[in-house]
Design goal:
This protein has helices at residues 11-19, 41-45, 66-75, 102-118, 145-148; strands at 2-8, 24-32, 52-59, 84-85, 88-89, 95-99, 128-131, 135-137. It is an alpha+beta fold and 161 residues long. The chain has a single domain (2-148), classed as Peptide Methionine Sulfoxide Reductase, Chain A (2-Layer Sandwich).
């Protein structure tokens, strides 16, 4: 089992995007990249802790590759807006890849270079690639937030089966 950590806006939707992948064994949402120990959601929302909302993923590299996780990351947010995703504004919503190995860091940087050359977005990518510091798990009510409410994204309801 390996670990990957991504920040791409509100962690509810980011977590939902990764949880549906074959090979993802578990996720947890939380806070990373700031200067306050064990921050609360309220503290992170104050924009004074420096933390990003992020999802930490436990995955089986035999079933899903880190490169595939990167593709999901890129497909599910706008990496060209600094400290913002849609209507969510603040440093907690920044685009960042928190790496757990030199190989992950290289893959992340290579994907930025490749995507920048493809001109997929009008503006340059501002995603940070940072060695993962301590991850602080968010409050329980944030875990699998959308799934618990029968939603697939922050704005779309799941169809009833």
């Amino acid at each position: 089992m390996e670990k990957a950590t991504f920040a791409a806006g509100c962690f509810w939707g980011v977590e939902a995007a990764f949880r549906q992948l074959d090979g993802v064994k578990g996720t947890r949402v939380g806070y990373i990249g700031g200067q306050t120990e064990s921050p609360t959601y309220k503290e992170v929302c104050s924009d004074r802790t420096g933390h990003a909302e992020a999802v930490e993923i436990a995955y089986d590299p035999e079933r899903v590759s880190y490169d595939e996780l990167l593709e999901i990351f890129w497909a599910n947010h706008n990496p060209t807006t600094r400290n913002r995703q849609g209507f969510d504004i603040g440093s907690q919503y920044r685009s960042a890849i928190f790496t757990h190995s030199p190989e992950q860091a290289e893959a992340a940087r290579s994907s930025i270079e490749r995507l920048g050359g493809e001109n997929r977005w009008r503006n340059p990518i501002v995603t940070q690639v940072v060695e993962a510091p301590e991850f602080y798990e968010a409050e329980d009510y944030h875990q699998q937030y959308l799934e618990k409410r029968g939603r697939s994204s922050c704005t779309v309801e799941l169809a009833a089966s």
